[in-house]
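Lab manual, section 2.4: Encoding a predicted structure.

Procedure: take the sequence of the chain (406 residues), apply the prediction step described in section 2.3, and record the output as structure tokens. A sample record is shown.
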Amino acid sequence: MKPSLQVYLDYQATTPVDPRVLEAMLPWFSQSFGNAASRNHAFGWEAEKGVEEARKSMGAAIGGSGREIVFTSGATESNNIAILGVAKMYVPKGKHLITCSTEHKAVLDPMHALEQDGWEVTVLGVNEKGHIDLEELRAAIREDTVLVSIMHGNNEIGTLHPIGAIGAICREKGTLFHTDATQTLGKEAIDVQAMNIDLLSASAHKIYGPKGVGMLYVRRRNPRVRIAAIMHGGGHERGMRSGTLNVPGVIGFAKALELCLANREADQQRLAALRDRLQQRLSAGLTHVHINGDPDNRLACSLNISFEFVEGESMLMGMHGIAVSSGSACTSASLEPSYVLRALGIGDELAHSSIRFSLGRFTTAEEVDHAADLTIATVLKLRAMSPLYEMAMEGIDLSTVKWGGH
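Recorded output:
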């Protein structure tokens, strides 16, 4: 593989739009360009019909109905509507919420905002693989708990939560269950009925659809979930989300999901095999590497790995032409070590040395091998300059070293 070749291994941050998705979207920009809320003429009716068909197919894809799908600008907005909208609507029941320490900021930040307004938020910790304790969750749910929000698949480490078991506990305890399925829609099996999911968030751009469009599933029956509007201006989307719909985006989202589901199991097997190939090559070529998350229960596309004695940001600079991330894309501008890795009990040094590789539909074995070779070469080069690595190789336990200074 040519050294100049750009290899994209950051599919958990975003994906390219599949050409078939783009093809489905194009007519809705300039030919069928109506506003889906314009009820007085054929242009509006046509747009509305396209949106309703997308709703129907997406609802069916997760075991729900089209009437339960609300379109948004992305999963961040969906998470905010779910959390803030439920909180506002269910104040008479209580002001207690439950989430988890490794959630995306789009869940943790609205929870924190509610705390400022007098809500109580229980944040469950995780074990070294990124899993919550289900009995701890059960014990945390109280009479005044209105919502539990636990993601399906983690965006940094790929750990999959057992959302069916979580949903069952929430249903038994009589509290609503929201899951952020941004990383799992179209990849993992999702059935909102079987899993007792009351609200579910997702985004098109993680599944080869366009950026700027998302969805929120809101259960209509058993129980009927009610959401107070957090944005006003026309009462679109059954009053839950005002604003003109991104019709081409909605059409693209539905097409992207349809394509994902058509070959879901075969695609997952292919990706898991490529990920394992990358992991095996890195583990064979380097010592002192740590796989972060749950190696047996994670997203097929995801490999988060720490390389002792090197700094993740330095590695990224050395790995020219390979697009990967250290930490998640949403927080990678920060110099703080990843809060997700910290939650697993990984020390700051190791957290700083972590790289997230994420593979996708267009990833080839050749790209994986090139990425492995370049990563190994970069780590070896950086370690050759590291006095810490030299000391460790000499058998010195670095945790016992007393460094000089005042």
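Check your result against the sample. Residues 13 and 329 are 6 Å apart (CA to CA).
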